[in-house]
Design a protein that fits this description.
The protein is of the alpha+beta class. Helix content is 31%, strand content 29%. It contains 3 helices and 3 strands. It has a 3-stranded mixed β-sheet. The longest helix is centred in the first third of the chain and has 10 residues. It is globular. It starts with a helix and ends in an 8-residue tail after the last strand.
Length: 72
């Protein structure tokens, strides 16, 4: 499987979901985070999500998950 093909399938997915998908394909990627250590420690507030998958490397960042605001 080409990493370019999987990019649309993995981008935006939670890290745990992406790892499960890749595991079913026999891949164990390197996981790289693009945020400072202090932000990674806020994992109860933020969710690790895939930014991109290239050359068997998952680039991840932490994002706030929230409900869309209601229009006023």
């Amino acid at each position: 499987m080409s990493s370019e093909t999987s990019l649309p399938d993995l981008a935006g997915k939670r890290l745990d979901e992406a790892l499960k998908i890749l595991e079913t394909q026999g891949l164990t990627p390197e996981v790289i985070f693009s945020m400072p250590e202090r932000m990674k420690k806020q994992d109860k507030v933020r969710t690790p999500r895939v930014v991109r998958f290239v050359d068997n490397k998952l680039l991840c960042s932490y994002f706030l998950d929230s409900s869309p605001e209601k229009p006023s």
